[in-house]
Amino acid sequence: MVGCPTDLDQQLRSLISSNLMHFTVIEHSGNNVLDRNAEQADLIVLHEAGAQQGLPIACRHFRTITDVPIITVAEQYDEDTMSETFEAGANDYVYSACSSRELLARIRAQLRRSHEYTANAAADERLELDQLTVDIARHEVTVRGNSVKLTPKEFELITLLVSHCDKALSRQQLLKEIWGFNEHGNTRTLDVHIGRLRQKIEKDPTEPSTIITVPGYGYKLKG
Predict the structure, then answer these.
(1) Is the pLDDT of residue 87 over 80?
(2) The domain at 124-221 falls in which architecture?
(3) Per-domain residue ranges for the chain?
(4) Which pLDDT band holds residue 68 (cuts at 50, 70, 90)?
(5) What does each C-alpha distance from 160 to 58, 95, 173, 196, 219 come to in angstroms?
(6) How many CB atoms lie within 10 A of CB 223?
(7) C-alpha to C-alpha distances, 159 to 78, 82, 162, nearest whole angstrom
(8) What integer best gives the mean pLDDT of the chain?
(9) Any idea what DSSP says for residue 48?
(10) What is the band of 35 on the pLDDT scale with cuts at 50, 70, 90?
């Protein structure tokens, strides 16, 4: 089931419905309607025009109800809002001017990643590195003995980095593995998530010693 706001263009909503044949597209115009369907939804598309109190507040509200992917659609670019929206739990952040083909590709990528993660998380796996522990089955991360609250994408990203400890992963590989982008994705999305992770797990985020930047290539987690 995919939650879809009624303020999306009618043609775009029709395309979403016709291209997601195995899913029911639920159109909603307010939080109360979505709240009643959130537990059954596989993905939520949240348009800025339908988020009466703003995208970050709306995402934070939905994260108290469900962990399914949330794709936010903004009216225009705003770096502060984008960062706050990701921090509040959004999985993707696009603009109203994006094509229907791009939005559909992002929906499919998020659904695919969500289903793959659910299948992999069923295995009882615990990754430990020095003072960092990632418990996949419990969806928990502890740093120096303290529990750290991560968004779903932050959790996927740190899990991937820990599982490839001391191995440099390219930006393209990280975007493909976490966001499902096969070619050139939004590298700013990756940078925002890396920055948020550093704020939560590094002793000094301004001088990161755990998540290292590999200039001109990508990132790696130092063991």
Answers:
(1) yes
(2) Orthogonal Bundle (1.10)
(3) 2-119, 124-221
(4) confident
(5) 28, 27, 11, 16, 11
(6) 11
(7) 29, 23, 5
(8) 78
(9) G
(10) low
